[in-house]
């Protein structure tokens, strides 16, 4: 399990960077008026220049990707209940995502900014979790139906 977490973490780093840069490209296409904006202006200002901001965002996006990828191993521990897996996964993502979002200025630096960012994060987490749960439930039901059908066919 530890080896799987480490390997996924290393593979998740470049994936996090890729996703981070994809987001900057998409947001620049939408709001950039023909210009590429590799980091939010507040991050550039806090880092004193654009290259420092981009380097920080690169590293933090990679760390976020690594945490998300490594955290996916939580779902594979069959000795834990779905509730325990969900709580641990949610906490891991929260304690990874929220500080990174704060340091990269992806949220307003105020109590209301942090609370609203967390509320959006939690709502998206719940929506994704429910969709995943229903998908797996449906897939398991299809497998069980096939097993019942095969069992019935073999008894004939």
Write the layout of secondary structure elements.
Layout: H1 2-31, H2 41-47, H3 50-71, H4 82-103, H5 111-155
Overview of this protein structure:
The chain is mainly alpha-helical and 156 residues long. The chain has two domains: 1-106, no CATH class; 110-156. Helix content is 81%, strand content 0%. It is built from five helices and no strands. It has helices spanning 2-31, 41-47, 50-71, 82-103, 111-155. The longest helix is centred in the last third of the chain and has 45 residues, at 111-155. The model has no long low-confidence stretch (mean pLDDT 93).
Total DSSP helices: 5
Query: Approximately what portion of the residues adopt beta-strand conformation?
Result: under 5%
Rg from alpha-carbon coordinates: 20 Å
Low-confidence stretches: none
Q: SS-based structural class?
A: mainly alpha
How far is the first residue's CA from the last residue's CA?
43 Å
User: In percent, how helical is the residue content?
Assistant: over 70%
Largest β-sheet summary? none
Oligomeric state as shown: single chain
Shape: elongated
The domain tally reads 2
Number of strands: 0
SSE series:
HHHHH
| Overall pLDDT | 93
Task: Name the features.
81% helix; mainly alpha; single chain; 156 residues; 5 helices; elongated
Q: How would you sum up this structure in a few lines?
A:
By secondary structure, the chain is mostly helical. It contains 5 helices and no strands.
